[in-house]
Each structure stands twice: as structure tokens, then as C-alpha cells.
Design brief:
With 216 residues, the protein is an alpha+beta fold. It has two domains: 1-48; 53-213, no CATH class. Helices cover 33% and strands 20% of the residues. It contains three helices and five strands; from the N terminus they run αβββββαα. Strands 1-2-3-4-5 form a five-stranded antiparallel sheet. A hairpin with a 2-residue loop joins strand 2 and strand 3. The modification FMN phosphoryl threonine is found at residue 178. It is an enzyme of class 7 (translocase). Residues 103-195 form the FMN-binding domain. One of its GO terms (molecular function) is electron transfer activity.
């Protein structure tokens, strides 16, 4: 009797486990398309903060270039995507991922929009571990400091002035925190240089030398 009882319970448990697995699999199959669509919408919303819809008429999520850790100027740890914005087929901007590896508390992941004319379309911080109330001011939700890059280029300021004021540059640092803004400024400058060096791939425009050997 005991053996029969154990066998019966084992069968019931196996049936329950199988039913649960089938239910979870079915739920996943029914919702995976919706989840993927929601993720896509969230990604697009983030991109549109840098290149608004009125500036392009293509799907940036479907116009990408893969970049990886082999590109030192971007500081990436893993493969990511550059997104291109086009207006009637012409590339007007590229949104480039980059990582500032020398933040005070570690990596600062950024996306940097670069217009075809070499100016910054916008910068956003995706993730960081900076100190609340100090280094976290790189986050737009905490401070508008990150907006200071919009419209800048390697001509404004010149490459030698791409630094925080403490280092005789033009970008303000945070009260009590210099390492974090210094890292972000250097990373944005590096991305502008990368965009200049690769302007033909990104925008279909041959690279042009600018003052102090920078690329436009």
C-alpha cells in the first residue's frame, strides 16, 4: 500500500509539473511578441529624446551598425548598436553607444547623438553607479548638466578645451565631484573624434581635418 501511495503521488507530481511547464510555455509564446514590441517602443522612446521624430522619417531601430569592445574610442564592454536617423534617405544623425570606464564608482554607460555636421545632437546616461547627490548629476533625472553638450563640436570648443574647468576646460564640474564629469567629457570628445574618423561609414560624408588634427 505504501509503495502504491508513493507511486501515485509521484505520478500526480509529475503531471502537475508538466502542466505547469506547459502553462508557462504557452503564456510565454502568447506574450513574447507583445513583450518584444514593448521593449522596442521603450528603445525608440530613448532614441527620440536625442533625435526627435520631426528630424527623421526612417526607423532608427532598423538602421544600425554593430560596434564592439575592439573600438577603444567607445570604451564598450560588449557589442552594441549605432542607430542612424535618416531624412528622405540621407543620414542626419547617428546615436552612438559609449562607456566612460573611469567614472568615480565604475562604468558610466552613455548614448551620444552626433549630427552629420559634427555637432552633438544630445547625450543621455543609460546607467551608472555614481554617488547620489554628487556624481549622479550625469543623469538627466537628477540634473540638466548633461544638456551642456548639445550643439557642441570639436570646433566649439576646440579639442584642447574639451575638459572640465578644473582642468582649464569649458565644462563645469559638480561641487565636490570632478572625476565623474571629467570622465563623461572625455568620452563625449572621444565619440566626436570617432564619428569624424568614420563619417563616411556613419553619414556617407568623407572625413575632413579640423583644427588640432580633429575630424569634422
Amino acid at each position: 500500500m505504501l509503495g502504491q501511495s508513493i507511486t501515485k503521488n509521484a505520478v500526480l507530481l509529475a503531471v502537475f509539473a508538466m502542466s505547469t511547464a506547459l502553462l508557462l510555455a504557452g503564456t510565454y509564446l502568447l506574450t513574447q511578441d507583445r513583450i518584444a514590441e514593448e521593449i522596442r517602443k521603450a528603445e525608440e522612446k530613448a532614441l527620440l529624446q536625442i533625435v526627435p521624430r520631426e528630424r527623421h522619417n526612417n526607423s532608427m531601430l532598423d538602421d544600425t551598425i554593430t560596434v564592439g569592445a575592439d573600438i577603444s574610442a567607445l570604451g564598450l564592454r560588449t557589442e552594441k548598436q549605432i542607430y542612424r536617423a535618416r531624412q528622405d534617405g540621407r543620414v542626419v544623425a547617428a546615436i552612438i553607444p559609449a562607456t566612460a570606464r573611469d567614472g568615480y564608482s565604475g562604468d558610466i554607460d552613455l548614448v551620444i547623438g552626433v549630427n552629420a555636421d559634427g555637432t552633438v545632437a544630445g547625450v543621455r546616461t543609460l546607467s551608472h553607479k555614481e554617488t547620489p547627490g554628487l556624481g549622479d548629476k550625469v543623469d538627466l533625472a537628477k540634473s540638466d548638466w548633461i544638456l551642456n553638450f548639445t550643439g557642441r563640436s570639436l570646433r566649439d570648443p576646440l579639442p584642447g578645451q574639451w575638459a572640465v574647468t578644473k582642468d582649464k576646460g569649458v565644462f563645469d564640474s559638480f561641487t565636490g565631484a570632478t572625476i565623474t564629469p571629467r570622465a563623461v567629457v572625455a568620452t563625449v570628445k572621444g565619440v566626436l573624434e570617432y564619428a569624424g574618423d568614420n563619417s563616411e561609414v556613419l553619414f556617407g560624408i568623407p572625413a575632413t581635418v579640423t583644427p588640432e588634427g580633429a575630424q569634422e
